Amino acid sequence: MAQVTVSLDANLAIDVMTLSGTRSPQDAVELILRDYLERGRRTGTRTGDAADGHRVSQERPNTQEG
Question: Do 16 and 32 touch, CB atoms closer than 8 A?
């Protein structure tokens, strides 16, 4: 896998290390990015996309209460 070098502010790197519980800034950033991408995938799976519009009906079923 290709690697990319990114410069970060030291305070940002420390915050990321604290959040992820790692001692290496590189590992911390990698974990945070992987988590961010997974959340996006999970959200997309749960909410669907524009092609799923056929599942949503504008009509609400009449329910009796009481």
Answer: yes
pTM: 0.54
pLDDT digits (tens, 9 = 90+) for 20-61: 899 999 899 888 889 888 887 766 666 666 666 666 666 666
The three-class DSSP label of residue 28 is: helix
The answer to whether the CB of 55 falls within 8 A of the CB of 48 is yes
Report the alpha-carbon angle 13-18-20, nearest 5.
Answer: 95
**The pair of three-digit structure tokens given for residue 21, joined into one six-digit string:** 């519980």
| DSSP at 64 | -
CA–CA distances in Å: residue 58 to residues 27, 47, 54: 47, 17, 10
Alpha carbon of 7 to those of 23, 27, 38, 40, 62: distances in Å?
Answer: 17, 14, 23, 24, 58
